Every structure is written in C-alpha cells, then in structure tokens.
Amino acid sequence: MLLQIASIGLLADRLLTEEFDAVRLWEQPDAWLTRHGAEVELVATSVRAGCGPEMLAALPRLRAISSWGVGHETLDVAGARARGIGVATTPEVLDDCVADLAWGLLMAVARRIPAADRHVRAGEWTEVGRFPLSTKVSGKRLGVLGLGRIGAAIARRGEGFAMEVRYHGRGPKPGVAHGFEPSLRELAAWCDFLVVACEGGPATRHLVSAEVLEALGPGGILVNIARGSVVDQAALIAALEAGRLGGAGLDVLENEPGAPLALRRCDNVVLTPHVGSATHETREAMERLVVDNLRAFRRDGTLLTPVRA
Ligand code: NAP
Q1: Per the domain annotation, does 70 fall within a domain?
Q2: Do the domain assignments include residue 211?
Q3: Is-contact 43 83, C-beta < 8 A?
Q4: How many domains in the chain?
C-alpha cells in the first residue's frame, strides 16, 4: 500500500491515485494510522509535510519514501537508513530555477529594481536622475556558501557576469576551479555578494552569524535561497537597521510563512515567499520525479534520486 502524507500537486496526486491507489492520509479518520500503518510499504510526501521518527515508527513495513523537494531536514533519513528504508527527493530538476531566483534577488537588491519600480509607480519620476545610484554587479566577487548542485548553478551564472567565485563548505570539492575558503567569515570579508545555498537543519543553523554579516559589511549583499535557519535573522535585522550590511535578498526566512515587520520595512531588502522552484516547468518536473521514484522502486527496488547524505 502507498500512503500519501500530503498533497503534492494536481499531477502527482492524480498519478499516485491512478497508478498506486494511494491512500490520502489527510482524508482518513484519526485512527487510520494505528489500524492500517502495518500495511504501508511506500510513502509519498513533501519536504513541507516530512516523514519524521513518529511516522516511521507507525509504519513497521515501510520500504521507501519519495519526497517532493530537495531539502531532507524534515525526513528521518538516519532512522530510515537504519531500517533499510530508501529515501528519495527531487534534486537537479530545480537547480536552474533556484539559481535563477538567487540571481534575480541579487540583481534586484544591488540595482534596487523593486525600489525603483515603487518610485515610478508612486509618480515620483518627475525629474531625470532623481533616483539614487545603485551597486554595480558585473565583475564583482561572488561568495557561495554550499557549492552543491544549486550552489554550482549559481556559480556558473557568476562566470557570465565576469565574477571571481569562491566558496565555503565542509571541505574543498575535487575538480572545482573556484577557490575554496575554509573560513566562512573570511569568505564574507572577501566577497561583495554572499549567496547561501547549503542545506538546512541543525548542522548549518545560524552559520551566517553576526560576525559573518559584519565581515560582509556595509557594501555587501546577502542572498539566501537555502533555508531561513542558516541565517541568524535577529543579527541580520540588527545589521540592516544599523547600516552595517548593504542589503539582502531573501527567498527563505525563519518561521515561515510570513516576514517580520523589521524586514518588510527595509528598503534595501527584497523578499520572495519561498518560490525558488516555483515555476510551471520545474514544479511539473518535481511532481513527475516523485512518481518516477516510486515507479522505479516498484519495478526493481531502486530509487532514481536517493538521498546520499
Ligand atoms: P546539495 O547538492 O546537497 O548541496 C548542499 C550543499 O550544502 C553542499 O554543497 C554542502 O557542501 C553544503 N553543506 C552541507 N552541510 C554543510 C555545513 N555543515 N557547512 C557548510 N556547508 C554545508 O543540495 P542542493 O540540491 O544544492 O540544495 C541546497 C539547498 O537548497 C537544499 O538543502 C534546500 O534547503 C535549498 N533549496 C531551496 C529552495 C527554494 O525554493 N528556495 C529550493 C530547493 C532547495 P559540502 O558538502 O562541501 O559541505
């Protein structure tokens, strides 16, 4: 039996029902898991709904989890591995769109595009040259925190803007031309734009600390398309309010959904509501990959895109 923990999207929901006769947990009575948990062999879920230790404990015959999204901090990957349960996410198909959005945020903050748009709409474009100058993007220094699949796609786009790129992570990546910086603080001090693209979860919580933001400085811009938890948001707000940071482009925040007033009223902050992968094309590809992983597992017991962490 396949248990679907949450709605994944119109396409995936339909295919899971047609091909797997999926049981939709959110449509079942409260006692369903206790009565039927032992019949479940496959789970379809999403990074938002997750599949944590309690759910795993309720599914003693579970063999595979297919999750929509690339983050796996809401999935009990270690618990699943200990029981030989396969876990798949939907990586790679979203790299381009998330990297594109990171660049959109970077450009929007540096060139003050939303502020300029507000200026024109408010009827304030009454004389030439009244809007304040902004920050040049091309030829600057780009720092990437987490040169994974998405981080690498962000770095590749930097080459088109004639940027020197350096990165930070747990260690240098073999065969990568960009410079590795063992200290995130040093990377922030070196670069003009710091883009956060590492995974979320406890290990990366508040990696972008007050000290890192201070090193980035009043001329620096922070872009976060990874997880809100990676940035110390209180320190970020303090740095922005004190003029100790040049600006920020944020697709993800702590305590989503919603953004604190302090960020919403900063003119040098551009906010998007966690929409890195949210294009028609990419969302369709993600939904298809959730189903393709389950098809592959049913066919021969393998997953196409297993979590390797
Ligand atoms: P990935 O290929 O697994 O890359 C993750 C990177 O995180 C790795 O390069 C890793 O670098 C780095 N990392 C992990 N632990 C770290 C640590 N303790 N310190 C420093 N760096 C660390 O994942 P991906 O597919 O590129 O996705 C990256 C993240 O983007 C996801 O986990 C997700 O949270 C986020 N995301 C956001 C959106 C959105 O809509 N905004 C969409 C998709 C994904 P090392 O191995 O070198 O340490």
Answers
A1: yes
A2: yes
A3: no
A4: 2
Residues 128-137 pLDDT 10s: 888 999 999 9
Angle at 160 between CA 179 and CA 134, to 5 degrees: 95
Return the number of other C-beta atoms located less than 10 Å from residue 242's C-beta: 9
CA of 224 to the centre of ligand 1 (A): 11
Please confirm, yes or no, whether 256 is among the known catalytic residues: yes
Percent of the chain with pLDDT over 90: 98
- The residue type found at 48 is R
CA of 252 from ligand 1 middle (Å) equals 13
Residues 76 and 126 in one domain: no
152 plus 295 within the same structural domain: no
Tell me: do 259 and 133 sit in the same domain: yes
Tokens of 31: 């006692």
pLDDT tens for each residue of 259-296: 999 999 999 999 999 999 999 999 999 999 999 999 99
229 pLDDT tier (thresholds 50, 70, 90):
very high
Output the ligand 1 site: residues, CB below 6 A.
70-71, 91, 94, 98, 146-151, 169-171, 197-200, 203-204, 225-227, 251-252, 274, 276-277
193 and 253 inside one domain: yes
Query: pTM (2 decimals)?
Result: 0.97
Say which CATH number the domain at 129 has.
Answer: 3.40.50.720
Rounded Cα–Cα distance for residues 112 and 90 (Å): 33
Q: What residue owns the CA closest to ligand 1's atom 38?
A: 276
Cα(53)–Cα(55) distance, integer angstroms:
6
Across the range 80-90, mean pLDDT stands at 98
**Which residue segment(s) compose the domain that 202 sits in?**
95-271
Mean pLDDT calculated for residue range 48-71: 98
- Residue 123 in domain: yes
Looking at the fold, whether 112 and 13 belong to one and the same domain comes out as: no
Q: In the structure encoding, which two tokens stand for residue 122, read together?
A: 């408010």
